[in-house]
Amino acid sequence: MYRQCASLVERHRSELSFALLLSGYALYLILGAWVFSAVELPYEQRLREQLETARQKFLWDNVCVSDERLEELLTRALHANNYGVSVLGNASENNWDFISSLFFTSTVLTTTGYGHTVPLSDGGKAFCVFYSLLGIPVTLLFLSALVQRIMVLVTRRPVAYLHLRWGVVSKPKFAAVHAACLSVVAALLLFLLPAVVFCRLEPLWSYLESLYFCFISLTTIGLGDYVPGETHNTVPNSHRTLYKLAITLYLLLGLVCLLVVVETCCELPQLKSFRRRFYRENNAPESETRDQEEFSSTEHDQMTDHLTDQLTFSSVSAQAASLRQDNTTWQ
To answer: Per residue in 174-193, pLDDT tens?
Structure first.
């Protein structure tokens, strides 16, 4: 009986692993919803009570204003605010100058989408649809090609060189250490230090809020509750253009660096073997499966040998140059 159960589990291991993954993901969603509801619902209720109290106090102090007129004013103000137009001192600020539009296109094409500024006209909305329809695939293609090139310089060559130089340690261990170091450096340069800068430039933001903005932006979640340069009177108008341009460059470069880190971690042999547990098993004939595995192994070995030959050739050339220099000195 035990052997039959073990054989059944082994035969359907991929399906059972996927069912376990699905159940875990559903429980994770439920846990997140429960935590957010428990944390945010009391805060929302207090905010509603404070807002209602302020509204009643305003009507009490201004008896000439009716509740209907105040409701109409607030409705128009909130409707305009949803389109990025605020009633709070925005006479000298434009949401659609060139730099602001450049910031908007970068958030659209990278699918960050803060939502604080949206097209107002029908023509702008139609153009945004067609612009994104072409631009998002091109952006994904550009990012994937750029990340692939950076990966060769930042990840593959250093790991191959270290493994060739100190071959005592296995290559998966080198890759894991390299990924850990790269993650620490990325966390420092992409999140911790920029959060300090935003905390200084945005006086209304705490360090936690600045760190929250960096994470939400670079992971392309883009909730839009915190957008730098949009808080009134935080940045002088003379520097606002330069500030927004710097933020645009930070978001684009930061996204590329974060993708490099994620791709480096995904290429770890440990993660590959872990992910393979949840994939569907190959039902191809045994001979075909063996041929595919041999082809993949051969291709991988050729790439590794080519890289090793390059590193070895470089080392031998350096030694030969050193010997020639020594002979010239002795002569």
So the answer is: 889 999 999 999 999 999 99
- pLDDT-derived band at 315 (thresholds 50, 70, 90) equals very low
* CA pair distance 331, 324, nearest whole angstrom: 11
3-state secondary structure of 268: coil
SS3 of the chain: the string is CHHHHHHHHHHCHHHHHHHHHHHHHHHHHHHHHHHHHHHHHHHHHHHHHHHHHHHHHHHHHCCCCCHHHHHHHHHHHHHHHHCCCCCCCCCCCCCCCHHHHHHHHHHHHCCCCCCCCCCCCHHHHHHHHHHHHHHHHHHHHHHHHHHHHHHHHHHHHHHHHHHHHCCCCCHHHHHHHHHHHHHHHHHHHHHHHHHHHHHHHCCCCCHHHHHHHHHHHHCCCCCCCCCCCCCCCCCCHHHHHHHHHHHHHHHHHHHHHHHHHHHHHHCCHHHHHHHHCCCCCCCCCHHHHHHHHHHHHHHHHHHHHHHHHHHHHHHHHHHHHHHHHHHHHHC
pLDDT at 83 over 80: no
Residue 33: exposure state from Cβ atoms within 10 A (0-12, 13-18, ≥19): exposed
Instruction: Please determine, for residue 302, whether its predicted confidence score (pLDDT) is greater than 70.
Output: no
* Number of residues assigned to the chain: 331
Q: What predicted TM-score, i.e. pTM, was given to this entire model?
A: 0.75
Q: Per residue in 122-145, pLDDT tens?
A: 899 999 999 999 999 999 999 999
Neighbours of 29 (CB within 10 A): 10
